[in-house]
Design goal:
Blueprint: H1 15-28, E1 38-45, E2 48-54, E3 59-65
Antiparallel strand pairs: 1-2, 2-3
Amino acid sequence: MDRNARTLAQFDGSAEEAESILLETASTYEHKLWKVNRREIFKCSSRSYFLRIHGRMATYGLLLQLAELIHDTAQPPSKSSG
């Protein structure tokens, strides 16, 4: 079973835009399947969905969640004037 976390999309926008993109991603993501026969989307919250996708030979369950980047060591801290 694949239990790795991965980034499916990165974007800048409002919380509402992020929630909309999350649902769109759940509605279109195919994981490792060549053809999706059935897709079930369970809403856990406005920021997370459980996605179950069925193919001919396999079924995958994935938890899709929004995450906000709050710190990145590759980016210098912003200096506030004052």
